[in-house]
Amino acid sequence: MTNAGAPFRSGIVVLAGRPNVGKSSLINRLIAYKASIVSDKPQTTRNVIRCVYNGDGFQIVFTDTPGIHLPKHTLGRTIVDAAVASMNDANLVCYVVEASDRSVGPEDEEILACLEKAETPILLVVNKCDSQKDKDLPDRVAAIYGARISPAGAVAVSAKTGRGIPELVSMIVKHLPEGPPFYDEDIFVDRPEKFIASEIIREKVLRLTHEEVPHSAAVEIEEYKSPDEYPEREVLFIRATIYVEREGQKRIIIGDKGTRLREIGRLARLEIQALTGHRVYLDLWVKVRSDWRRSESDLRKLGIKEQSP
């Protein structure tokens, strides 16, 4: 379909929803690029990430927000504040829920309380429809949430298989105002490459550790020298530190004789190589920074809380 002669449309669309409902997977499916890491651990996403979808005559800037949850510390409050603030600046909110939902849970109650106050139009997105055999189930799930927020529409999708994605894009475009694109066509995500690299490392920590360790880990890129910036180099050099809060967590991440840390580095290196197209030398360290999740200054240093202007 072409839009020859029609005015260009562009807008900001926020994906909101509880942790682990599949927002990051949906973003990655939409833009066909791994902009957000995914895992089975709650609160995997900590930063607001803007991702760009370019269509014929339109540009959608998706904002992947951290899941809204009941915060237990400064890190949790920072994550929730960022998610709520992003809704107020959007042209449309896509509220993502799951096809298996049977009732409104406590975390969705928190989100609905925010959405009920918002003036931004809301599109209900029922994700994970590939796992449901009942064809009428997405409609019943939409009825559970639709009674609270009067959405502008509802669509059933699967981030896993791509089902319903074209219909979702088509419904979003109807809510975009006329205006020029925000970003050039070759930009997919508003975060630098080294941020994506740090998130890939953290994703491997999430994958290979359990219980409290994943939530206590943060990754800081200390040095990042790419052949794109230094043409004399043949290898992308990355020196990164994984911060945890306790000595015991450090020992868990390092593992017996360093086996777990080497595996984290191996998996991260392969994925960063695939992302950048460069051979990668990854110099990975683990250090203790006590109670960093409760420290405003540590959250700023680690890039989780935006610096004040």
From TrEMBL:
Q: Which residues bind GTP?
A: 17-24, 64-68, 127-130
Which residue ranges does the record assign to the KH type-2 domain? Answer: 209-290
Q: Where in the cell is it found?
A: Cytoplasm; Cell membrane
Molecular function terms, GO-annotated: GTP binding; GTPase activity; ribosomal small subunit binding; small ribosomal subunit rRNA binding
**Region described as G1:** 17-24
Provide the coiled-coil residue spans.
none
- Using the record's annotation, list all stretches that form the Era-type G domain: 9-178
- Gene3D superfamilies xrefs: 3.30.300.20, P-loop containing nucleotide triphosphate hydrolases
Similarity comment:
Belongs to the TRAFAC class TrmE-Era-EngA-EngB-Septin-like GTPase superfamily. Era GTPase family.
What this protein is reported to do is described as:
An essential GTPase that binds both GDP and GTP, with rapid nucleotide exchange. Plays a role in 16S rRNA processing and 30S ribosomal subunit biogenesis and possibly also in cell cycle regulation and energy metabolism.
Protein's name in the database? GTPase Era
* Organism of provenance: Aminivibrio pyruvatiphilus
